[in-house]
Amino acid sequence: MQITVKLFATFRVGRFKIEQRSYPAQSTARAVLEDVGVTEEELGILMVNGRHGNLDQPLCEGDTVSLFPLVGGG
């Protein structure tokens, strides 16, 4: 199935901004995270189709997964 993956902020460094990727049917958001080389510890926000998601959320054909890193500051 085709999933659109969007990376934000530092996740784009050495990767991409937006890309269509292929995953096996019944893949989860965790599979996308592993595929792009982002660890759970680095992940700040995960969105699926513009809504907050979780790593074990099953994906469907045409879904969009957006990954945001943790952000620090004061």
Automatic annotation (TrEMBL):
CDD domains from the UniProt entry: Ubl_MoaD_like (cd17040)
Which Pfam families does this entry report, sorted A to Z?
ThiS
Domain of life here?
A: Bacteria
Q: Please identify the protein, giving its name as recorded.
A: MoaD/ThiS family protein
Task: Tell me the classification of the organism that encodes this protein.
Answer: Bacteria, Pseudomonadati, Thermodesulfobacteriota, Desulfuromonadia, Desulfuromonadales
